[in-house]
Task: inverse folding
């Protein structure tokens, strides 16, 4: 399998789908729509929706079935980026090599664009439920419930992350932040794909474990890139974590300790999927990509 | 009917219900929970959940059936107040006679508390759907859908309101802002009660018209109070709209013009409910209360 071209194919599919949800008509709130579009289409990796779809495709083919949840989770992800970047929180000026939302527009617009994207995620879900067959409703409502719980965790994780800035924290707190701030949403993505595909409890557990492991790997890699990545490729400044005395997997275990941990956890994640053979090839390659990416 | 004691009874019922959703356990995000509780229990009038319940009670008795939507809408209302008060938007220091959320806590906490309340509203709805009978799902999903659309309108209305600050705007734009920023949510409340009670399309139209009219009356009265209310009773400064050159129903029609409009629209709202006789007595008294309130 050519992983890179499959990845690109997924990204194009998702970008095409997301663009259907962008309101372009002339209206009093036009700039708010532009601002939501600006962040949503700023060139993210689309990792979250890809996880939903690729997990579903281990078991089933009709990819359109996943699309509303894939779109909704990408909206939530972008809401969280816009709000995290705000002057009142991380005060970041650049993201994906472009000015952050409040820099490009203004603070009021960025706050409301974030609110709008979070709420739009639920609009997408509500319309999906309204158009569902009776038989499909229970699993979709279960997903809606897990979705809202994961977003709750993400917000709590972001809060604690903000709270501990410049403080020495325990390994327990570092783990708490990661599991809530990034882990919950990544795990949710895999679980959404699996629940939609109506997998067994055993499969669900296995896939959840894979998701938790690549989520941790993703965070460790993020911390490594923040320390020694290439600013031009990353599209954001490097070394800020150190300046802000942020507690990360790098500040906790050192660069080489973090890299060892990343290696080990990636191997374990891949192990979980071996049972699915070539059906899980993309997700296995994705775990390697998370470890090896340079942005 | 003793309107004031019935109102108090409703408020107590809602406050009791809301308090069930407040997390009090020791946890890393404890302060975030305190911050959400601070705003949620700051002594609002509970107008929105009351509209849900009182509308439902024209037709049916089992008030518990309304509670999740009543709680969810009050969460959304408080999310919008917290974000509107932020330095990046209205920069208000007081609300209900107390420091605003970001003044009491800090900006990061206030942003995330608002996010958390918006998301919690959907958590409440998702759990309600999960525990519903199959037969009740279609009407509740319809409500979920209208709910998310109304919140979308509210966010757009807030955006346009922010945009036009200090500008001369047309009657059309003033109406657009009101209908989106406050009208949509108030109308939603009445419609939620009505749809839950499974009323006819004719009743739904009639109640929607009542809701639109009291929504407009509420906004006009708000503008009047902002101009000539008692700061001590209101719990916030008076005259700010003029200083900020905000376009309001008072700046547009003058104080006496706004009062005339308020009188007329309240009468029309009450007219819509006459058909329900004493069953609608509370909602009729509520329309009068909205017109006559001093805070």
Result:
């Amino acid at each position: 399998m050519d992983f890179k071209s499959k990845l690109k194919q997924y990204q194009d599919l998702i970008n095409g789908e997301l663009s259907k949800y962008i309101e372009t008509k002339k209206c009093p709130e036009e700039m708010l729509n532009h601002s939501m579009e600006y962040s949503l289409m700023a060139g993210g990796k689309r990792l979250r929706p890809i996880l939903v779809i690729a997990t579903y495709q281990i078991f089933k083919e009709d990819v359109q079935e996943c699309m509303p949840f894939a779109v909704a989770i990408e909206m939530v992800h972008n809401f969280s980026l816009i709000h995290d970047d705000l002057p009142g929180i991380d005060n970041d000026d650049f993201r994906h090599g472009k000015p952050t939302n409040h820099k490009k527009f203004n603070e009021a617009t960025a706050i409301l664009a974030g609110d709008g994207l979070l709420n739009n995620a639920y609009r997408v879900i509500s319309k999906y439920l309204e158009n569902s067959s009776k038989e499909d409703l229970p699993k979709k409502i279960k997903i809606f419930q897990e979705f809202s719980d994961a977003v709750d965790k993400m917000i709590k994780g972001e809060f604690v992350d903000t709270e501990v800035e410049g403080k020495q924290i325990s390994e327990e707190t570092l783990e708490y932040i990661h599991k809530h701030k990034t882990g919950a949403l990544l795990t949710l993505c895999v679980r959404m794909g699996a629940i939609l595909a109506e997998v067994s409890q055993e499969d669900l557990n296995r896939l959840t474990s894979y998701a938790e492991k690549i989520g941790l790997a993703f965070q460790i890699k993020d911390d490594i890139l923040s320390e020694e990545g290439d600013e031009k490729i990353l599209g954001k400044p490097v070394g800020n974590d150190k300046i802000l005395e942020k507690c990360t997997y790098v500040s906790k275990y050192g660069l080489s300790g973090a890299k060892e941990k990343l290696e080990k956890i990636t191997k374990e994640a891949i192990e979980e999927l071996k049972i699915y053979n070539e059906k899980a090839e993309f997700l296995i390659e994705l775990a390697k990509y998370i470890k090896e990416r340079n942005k």
Observations:
- The two ends of chain A are 22 Å apart (CA to CA).
